[in-house]
Amino acid sequence: MRPHRGFAVAAAAAFAMAAGSACGPQQLDGTLVLEFPSWQAADESFSAWWLELIDAYEQENPGVEIDFYQVPFDSFVAQQTTRFAAGDPPDVVHLPSSNAVAFATRGWLEPLDERLAETDILQEWTPLQEQMKWGEDYYGVLLLGYGYALFYNEALLAEAGVDVPTSPDELLAAAEAVSASSDDVFGFGATTVQNPDNYTELTSFVVGGGGSWSDPDGAITADEPVAREALQQYRDVLATAPPGIQSQQRNELFFNGQIAMLIDGPFLLSEVRGAPAEVRDDLKVAAPPFDVVPGGVSNGLHVPADADPETADAVWNLIELAARPEWQERYTELAAVPAPRQGSVTEEALAEVPELDLFGTLADDAVDIFPTAPGLRQEYGRVGDTVASAAVRLFATDTTVDDVARNLQRELEGVGHGR
Amino acid sequence: MAGDTEVRPSDAATRTPGRGGDRSPRTRARREKIFAYGMLTPTLAVVGLLTAYPIYVAINLSFRGGEIADLQNLGRYPLTLANYVEVITDPELLADIWRSLVYTVGVLAPAFAIGLGLALLLNRTFPGRRIVRPLALLPWAVPGVVVSAAFSWMLDGSFGVINYLLRSVGLIEQNVAWLANSSTAMTAVIIPTVWKFYPFFTIVLVAALQAIPHDLYEAARIDGARSWQQFRHVTWPALRAPAALAIVITGVGVFREFDFIFPLTGGGPDNATRTLAVRIYNEAFEFFSFGVSAALGVVTMFIAGALLLAANRAIGQGVR
């Protein structure tokens, strides 16, 4: 063979291999390799559970391997969107739950009703599983639903002479008292630059006060008195927060003893345990200071719509394994958050993490902060962006609450129109 | 060498062409041109394909309606002008274009001024020049996202070093939340972009400065020209063309810049830093509106092209 012809053959073979590796599951020596990108592959709270689960899966399913790898959360949805749009989805689909409906409505996810009917998932799961539903079908299995909790620094509250707040008014009074007690500490911590977290933080106040952005039929209610009151509470409380910080910076300040209170999901607890020793024992958790417990759906597992039957079955087997009681209990033990299957909090886990009792109660009582109206769920990206802009106007401008509420009402009414 | 005979021009001109020889200078020139294009063809084909195909997909996508979910089969979706109608009738478009222009000019002016000043400095001989030169050009080698991460901490509203320095010298009394405030956010994204781009101007201008013959400065000095006059009549005319080219290249790059704005502000607060590039990203990946995003991309391409043509014309006139 002449050299240049050999080169051409080698190049063609390399191209074919590359092309093959970019489409669908790989078959290596008869082994089915499932691609599983996740933002939790290197996460200190969740990666241990995933690795144990995958190891058990591979032992239970000889001939199937899972390629589990890390994709940064900041670019995760954009990467998955690109891959689905280009017809090259991953095999195991792990998505932030707020984006799941947008993927389902584009026909990218397989309806799972028939598969779910053969399990006890729908009977035993948290009611927040309903967020995996679009129309008449379920498109995923929720892995984490939670109620928001109040994380606080006991020492800072004591120094300011205030108790743990149980209402928005008490929260504001406590935050102001802490901020007034020293120039180096802040009463409350929040994301005070524009960020998707603005949506969750502001909406927690709205839902906590008994409001929402819309009624179930989709009529926008951002201008209702209950929503306005929540916007005012959010503005007042955030006036005691450090300006211009991201959520990670907020957490660092809390762990360093410079922020007295913040509201977040139970997953923050594992990070709290890594706080400096001199602060760690002062960091406690309580129910959020609202009448209604605001809650959220974190993430779920899905099967891609156009997967071949063998791959779809293999992916479902992983989901089904993850949903079994023993793995749900292990999830609670390793991630220190209540798993979605009822009764997953074991005595051992409770002894290790007493806060799980509270987290379980909050998850049971939680009202979802994500939109319930179909139109808003489908356009969650635009809704989140619109609410985040309103949040910025509240903490970074002098725009009146009435004007912010009116603008938000108008902008949310325009979401999805003309599309 | 023995046996060699010197060929005089007159001999070459009167030689009878043998087999394979050139029949005439014109024929030879044509053959050379064909050969040159033949050699360039593979490169031109690859570059053309890599440039043209994505543009074709973007334009095709921009004319497609419905819930686009499969970019490999765009033919499934109906042809429509709705995306362009939505983009062009959107009152936000003008604001996005304006912000893109403010960002571009806001970066170009200081980056060019710093780059020129530094080039004039580095063109002189002084102790430690060998160390200062690479250090001054270092920002050019740092990825944009890394620059953004560093500046996000420096610009931090509560504990950032920039607020500390400004407070130390008495320029501000209270901390400024640079990235959270609509009135300061654009400045906050311009600063790191300037830091990243000024070395390019320095590199180009130092190269141009070193090509200026010293005789010209000597002649100017003999004629009594002072430093400013030397700069105005000797240095600047030599720098004008490369400076203009560098401004155009950088300007087009900055106009569609994404790396700095998105990590720092995501286009916020309250859309204060939402340039066309950020808007295109948001439409596609936050809102899943691929058609609108592509239409915006095409509009941006036309705006950038028009600016490029205008700049080229200005450069041509300036150089002449």
Automatic annotation (TrEMBL), chain A:
Keywords: Signal, Sugar transport, Transport. SUPFAM superfamilies: Periplasmic binding protein-like II (SSF53850). Residues 1-18 form the signal peptide. Gene3D superfamilies: Periplasmic binding protein-like II. The keyword Magnesium does not apply. Pfam families: SBP_bac_1. CDD domains: PBP2_TMBP_like. This is ABC-type sugar transport system, periplasmic component. It comes from Actinoalloteichus fjordicus. The lineage of its organism: Bacteria, Bacillati, Actinomycetota, Actinomycetes, Pseudonocardiales.
Automatic annotation (TrEMBL), chain B:
It comes from the Bacteria. Gene3D superfamilies: MetI-like. The keyword Iron does not apply. Residues 1-27 are annotated as: Disordered. It holds the Pfam family BPD_transp_1. Belongs to the binding-protein-dependent transport system permease family. It comes from Actinoalloteichus fjordicus. SUPFAM superfamilies: MetI-like. GO terms for cellular component: plasma membrane. Residues 97-311 form the ABC transmembrane type-1 domain. PANTHER family: BLR7065 PROTEIN, SPERMIDINE_PUTRESCINE TRANSPORT SYSTEM PERMEASE PROTEIN. The chain crosses the membrane at residues 34-56, 101-123, 135-155, 197-217, 238-255, 287-311. It is a multi-pass membrane protein. InterPro entries: MetI-like, MetI-like_sf. One of its GO terms (biological process) is transmembrane transport. This is Permease component of ABC-type sugar transporter. Its main location: membrane. Keywords: Cell membrane, Membrane, Sugar transport, Transmembrane, Transmembrane helix, Transport. It is found in: Cell membrane.
